[in-house]
């Protein structure tokens, strides 16, 4: 018999379990030809004594070798190395990567049409102009850091965390609902609200609850593309309505329910995505009237309500009478940092109930620490101060960007200065297709990761979002200079 | 004309926008009877002069009042307070909560059957015995705190965060895949993996990709209930197979594909949820053979692989040949803290591609700071040390709990000491229905939030999970003493 006790060494400090160490080593010995094909292993009891391990450990090691088909069980004789073994490459053994392209077919699925509107290229010197994200330099990371050090608060949060989640921390739902009442003319309570990971999850949940295959959902064209992909994923039919400088064309919308039932409308009235246009007051009135008349549901995505630069925001549709038909969605992520993903969904009670349930199935609970600190920021007024400060900074950056664009790129781009938000919708003239610009920019160290559309014939069909909020004036100028070079 | 300039005061420091302050105050004046029904407002230009605000602000304020139907436009004359106003309660005005029970019907949906297997009752003195969560006292909160203070690391992370998410931070996917290769006998790379928010999201994504309405999915009975709810939500048919002390009954499973096509099997072979039973080696072999024979997909949920108390874990099915049919799911949440939700899904390339896409639609990106710190913990070996430390502690608590249960509750409960994990599956004798026990316990300050099943006739049909890992021995004894009082 081979001197297994010296050939197979067990290291109890190793993170690899003992049986696994044994099985791996035995495979190595077989591969190296030290244990020959057809050779019988010692019985499990004998091997356990040799190795000074529990017999169960040896059984597990042998089971492992059986599973991997290195050995076979011979009735009444024990385990032996398989007489025929597949070709082995000595000295380079690794377990097989078993995650091969699937043997059996996968259902054709609506998520097939992956739209990836960016080039992924990374170097540390690249300038990234994103879709319109906040400047994380303003993020309350220090507060978070302090919270994780605060043992009394931690104790409290851990207690809260030991309880099942009911659509977000109660403290946050209370604080957030009164913040929304103050700033948006609502009168909701915590029971009307579900906390989510950002507005994205809120849209996903709303769509999953409301839409069945074959339902009709109306969206703008162009539209926030990840919303369209969610709707497509539910099997609903997407009907598009054009957008002009007053926002969604409500007259075009009004025609649709005359010929087919509309289940849901998705709209971003405050600063439309991607074009940043604000829905005009006339159209808002008309839209509210249509909701009453045709009784369809509306997802009102108000992700950047808090960012308006001239004290002149438009209250959400949700603050008017809508008979429970509006699902109001917003985000605190834009107020904090892209990593601090907290959003919300506000809706009629039966929708909230379903949303809490689905939220839990998707992701048992949120980040209780993050939810706690946001609640505290709202209650202390820090959040409002933070918003005021950010608004001043972003308004400056917006003005600076528009000024630079007008001075340097007016031969190639058109845009309307937005009255808020974190991005400008740049429309390029026809001779500059946006996809080519993006490729050229990437080659010049400028990553334009904002959502872009290229659809000849559509007045908004050759544009990209230019997120200025997270960039210093120096970087904004640098980015525009690169564009100038490309668009000359 | 009324002295609007003194009646309506504008506070520019208020977080409420100016127009909103004006409209809210005007509504108050109407309600208080100071502005009478039928009275005409000053023109917008005049009002703007009076208030020292931009005319647009006044237009917005008037639009607001129009929307809320306090005033009406009279052609060529201007705006007047509506002659007929609905009954007003002076001094208690709030905007209306418009989120009433929805006016139009909501589609009947599979998420209707909400199962809430707990009583929600909270006081600070309650003992909570959960489903089997880690002890957050071991969580690396201090490391997180330091990371949020580390400006160099923050800079780096913010750069990573500026780029679109491709299924998780690359650094983490690299570290995690080599960690899994070392501990689980896999040979995967970062491209085989998607990072999710915990195992829950991974199950949700896998089910959403794989299942269509009418597909057959096989699960154990009882099963992890949130998995069942996810499967029900897809419209798939759920077929159940019994569980005994060797785990899922694979012989019963083998009969199913003979009469109907099986699309997917969901299994927790290492420590079955809820019963904690480990699938026997014989059944594992048989199951792998069935996968090959009938070519169905399998979600292998291995959420607590790392917690085994006797160096004797069973390697996942995914480490054997499965022809790309296994979707392997795990979690780092159990290693860290319930708030640090990071899990993963490992699968064949076409499944990973869809999963990355769906992940983004559900929740644009994960918490990059959290993903970063986990990657660093894996690379430095801190995670392995953390696991070893936690395992020692949990093994002690498990032994202590089993000892207490045997000594104090053997007249009322049966259980098998698990060889790992964070919970014990307590089966109560028939005369003690688990739902009643839970209610009685809650009244005595003991919240049993673990998953419970009550299904007379099923040998596992009167049980609850008793999560010991997060409790001190003192609290464990306290909890068992309360149970003793109830079960006398």
From TrEMBL, chains A, B:
Q: Which is one GO molecular function term here? A: transaminase activity
Which keywords label this protein? Aminotransferase, DNA-binding, Pyridoxal phosphate, Transcription, Transcription regulation, Transferase
Stretches assigned to the HTH gntR-type domain = 16-84
Domain of life of the native organism: Bacteria
Which family is annotated? In the C-terminal section; belongs to the class-I pyridoxal-phosphate-dependent aminotransferase family.
Q: What is the official name of this protein in its record?
A: PLP-dependent aminotransferase family protein
The organism is Mucilaginibacter gynuensis
């Amino acid at each position: 018999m081979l001197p297994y006790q010296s050939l197979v060494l067990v290291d109890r400090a190793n993170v690899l379990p003992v049986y696994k160490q044994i099985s791996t080593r035995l495979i190595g010995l077989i591969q190296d030809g030290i244990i020959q094909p057809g050779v019988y292993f010692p019985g499990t009891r004998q091997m356990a004594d040799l190795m000074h391990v529990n017999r169960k450990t040896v059984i597990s090691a042998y089971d492992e070798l059986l599973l991997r088909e290195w050995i076979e069980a011979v009735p009444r004789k024990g385990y032996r190395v398989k007489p025929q073994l597949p070709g082995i490459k000595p000295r380079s053994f690794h377990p097989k990567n078993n995650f091969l392209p699937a043997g059996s077919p996968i259902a054709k699925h609506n998520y097939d049409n992956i739209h990836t509107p960016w080039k992924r290229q990374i170097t540390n010197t690249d300038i990234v102009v994103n879709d319109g994200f906040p400047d994380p330099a303003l993020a309350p990371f220090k507060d978070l850091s302090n919270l994780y050090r605060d043992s009394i608060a931690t104790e409290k949060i851990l207690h809260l965390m030991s309880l099942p989640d009911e659509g977000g921390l109660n403290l946050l739902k209370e604080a957030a609902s009164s913040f929304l009442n103050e700033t948006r003319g609502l009168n909701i309570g915590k029971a009307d609200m579900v906390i989510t990971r950002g507005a994205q999850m809120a849209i996903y949940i709303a769509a999953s609850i409301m839409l069945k295959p074959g339902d009709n959902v109306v969206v703008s064209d162009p539209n926030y593309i990840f919303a369209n992909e969610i709707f497509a994923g539910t099997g609903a039919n997407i009907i598009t309505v054009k957008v002009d400088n007053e926002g969604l064309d409500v007259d075009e919308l009004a025609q649709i329910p005359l010929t087919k039932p509309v289940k849901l409308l998705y709209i971003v009235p405050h600063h439309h995505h991607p074009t940043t246009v604000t829905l005009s007051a006339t159209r808002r009135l008309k839209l509210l009237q249509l909701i009453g008349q045709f009784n369809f549901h509306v997802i009102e995505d108000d992700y950047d309500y808090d960012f308006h630069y001239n004290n002149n925001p438009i209250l959400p549709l949700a603050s008017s009478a809508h008979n429970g038909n509006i699902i109001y969605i917003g985000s605190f992520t834009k107020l904090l940092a892209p990593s601090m993903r907290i959003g919300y969904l506000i809706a009629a009670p039966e929708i909230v109930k379903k949303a809490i349930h689905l939220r839990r199935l998707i992701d048992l609970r949120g980040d209780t620490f993050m939810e706690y600190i946001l609640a505290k920021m709202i209650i202390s007024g820090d959040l409002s101060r933070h918003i005021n400060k950010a608004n001043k900074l972003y308004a400056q950056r917006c003005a600076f960007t528009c000024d630079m664009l007008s001075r340097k790129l007016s031969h190639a781009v058109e845009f309307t200065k937005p009255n808020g938000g974190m991005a400008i919708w740049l429309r390029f003239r026809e001779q500059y297709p946006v996809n080519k610009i993006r490729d050229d920019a990437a080659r010049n160290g400028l990553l334009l990761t904002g959502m872009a559309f290229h659809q000849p014939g559509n007045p908004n069909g050759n544009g990209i979002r230019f997120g200025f909020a997270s960039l210093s004036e120096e970087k904004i100028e640098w980015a525009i200079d690169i564009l100038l070079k490309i668009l000359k």
